[in-house]
Write a structure and sequence with these properties.
Layout: E1 2-9, H1 34-48, E2 53-56, H2 58-63, H3 65-73, E3 77-80, H4 93-111, E4 117-118, H5 131-138, E5 143-144, E6 165-169, E7 173-177, E8 182-185, E9 188-191, H6 195-200, H7 203-215, E10 221-224, H8 240-247, H9 250-263, E11 265-267, H10 269-275, E12 280-282
Parallel strand pairs: 1-2, 1-10, 1-11, 2-3, 4-5, 5-7, 6-12
Antiparallel strand pairs: 6-7, 8-9
Helix pairs in contact: 4-5
Bound molecules: zinc ion.
Length: 285
């Protein structure tokens, strides 16, 4: 069966943990690594003949439209990761709507095709920001991957289903939600789908986790950032905790992704949703 591989395209200095250290006004002065890192990801996917979904920060797309076009030309799905990589729960509904619209406009001006998928920075759609689903739907988004149904200091903590489900948006139909892969052990959900967990966990654990999900006919959604394949990205002098989280396992990430691509079938969320029969509904209102 197929699983989904997704990439959150952002600069190393845009990660949510650094949002108070590097303000958007400072971004233009910092060393950009994104073009080189995305190129590395594209070569990797070409080697394995894999299609993926790329959630791209609008700020990056505006500065480097050529990488958006290069991703698109290889047949991957282009999706929004917001314009300025702001956490949803740190914005008002109006600010979120503006930021989302701007990101979609930038991407659609480059590829001339409607943007239909979205992922909130750091999976920041929570029980307090359910209004975001309505705004997504109003802006043409059909597939969302903004919830990470586990306990985490930045992520959503939503008590929603852990596999693909439909969200009913009042008077506007449905949105398909695709949470990142989690594994339930002794009634507790563990994230296995990406980011720091992909870097920190032993490969066997992730492999067995995906196999366990697939055995139940549940596809796994995996994600990573292009900077996670870049062992040379600038060292950030921040708290020890954040430094460990950000740098742990960087040398090994490409190797782990290669092993995943070798062992499992992956495609974009766009194609995986088409292949999936979605039975779960999640009433939020
Ligand atoms: Zn992000």
């Amino acid at each position: 069966m197929y699983n989904a591989i997704t990439v959150d395209v952002e600069e190393w200095f845009q990660v949510s943990r650094l949002r108070r250290r590097y303000r958007p006004e400072q971004w233009p002065k910092l060393e950009s690594r994104v073009v080189e890192n995305v190129s590395r990801v594209l070569v990797l996917f070409q080697e394995y003949q894999v299609q993926a979904t790329f959630f791209i920060v609008g700020w990056v797309a505006e500065r480097y439209p050529e990488i958006v076009y290069a991703i698109y030309e290889q047949g991957h799905e282009i999706a929004s990761h917001g314009y300025q990589h702001q956490l949803v729960y740190e914005q008002s509904p109006a600010e979120f709507a503006r930021d989302l619209r701007k990101s979609i406009d930038v991407l659609e001006s480059i590829i001339d095709e409607p943007i239909k998928a979205f992922r909130a920075p750091s999976f920041s759609i929570t029980s307090k920001t359910l209004w975001a689903f309505e705004i997504l739907k109003e802006n043409g988004i059909e597939v969302d991957s903004s919830v990470f149904p586990v306990k985490h200091d930045l992520y959503g903590q939503l008590a929603c289903p852990s596999q693909f489900f439909k969200i009913q948006v009042p008077n506007k139909g449905f949105l398909t939600e695709c949470p990142v892969a989690t594994l339930t052990i002794w009634g507790k959900r563990f994230p296995i789908g990406g980011g720091g967990h992909l870097r920190a966990y032993p490969f066997r654990l992730i492999e067995e986790g995906i196999r366990a999900l697939n055995a139940k006919q549940i596809p796994a959604v995996i994600y990573f950032h292009p900077w996670e394949l870049d062992p040379f990205f600038p060292k950030v002098n921040t708290s020890i905790f954040s430094t460990i989280l950000q740098h742990h396992g960087l040398y090994n990430t490409e190797n782990k992704i290669r092993r995943l691509l070798n062992r499992f079938n992956f495609t974009s969320l766009r194609d995986l949703v088409k292949l999936s029969e979605i039975k779960d509904y999640w009433p939020t209102w």
